[in-house]
Amino acid sequence: MCDYCDNEDSEILHDIQTDNIPADALVEVCSWRRVCQVRGRNYSQVYPHMWSLTCQRRGYLFSRSNPRGF
């Protein structure tokens, strides 16, 4: 487990709501799973547009770290 996974749900929810999730947490599997769990438990508190931006940022980070796709 990574450091970000140890954060309280309220901290992670605030990061989701403010588009302030650290880049490392977006690409680490365990952190992303934790972010998705918090979002699922607090679905009505996360604006769809903000979640879309988070997913776009995550996709960008993945493509940037692996530009040739392997």
Secondary structure topology:
Elements (H helix, E strand, L loop, with lengths): L8 H9 L5 H5 L1 H13 L6 H18 L5
Order of helices and strands: HHHH
Beta strand %:
under 5%
Tell me, what's the shape? globular
Helix content: 55-70%
Number of domains: 1
The description of the largest β-sheet is: none
Give me the secondary-structure category. Answer: mainly alpha
Average pLDDT taken over every residue:
91
- Uncertain stretches of 5 or more adjacent residues: none
Can you offer a commentary on this structure?
It is a single chain. The chain has 70 residues and is an all-alpha fold. The chain has one domain (4-65). It is 64% helix and 0% strand. The longest helix has 18 residues, at 48-65. The termini are far apart. The model has no long low-confidence stretch (mean pLDDT 91).
Brief overview:
The protein is an all-alpha fold. It has helices at 9-17, 23-27, 29-41, 48-65. It has one domain.
Record keyword descriptors for this entry.
single chain; 70 residues; mainly alpha; globular
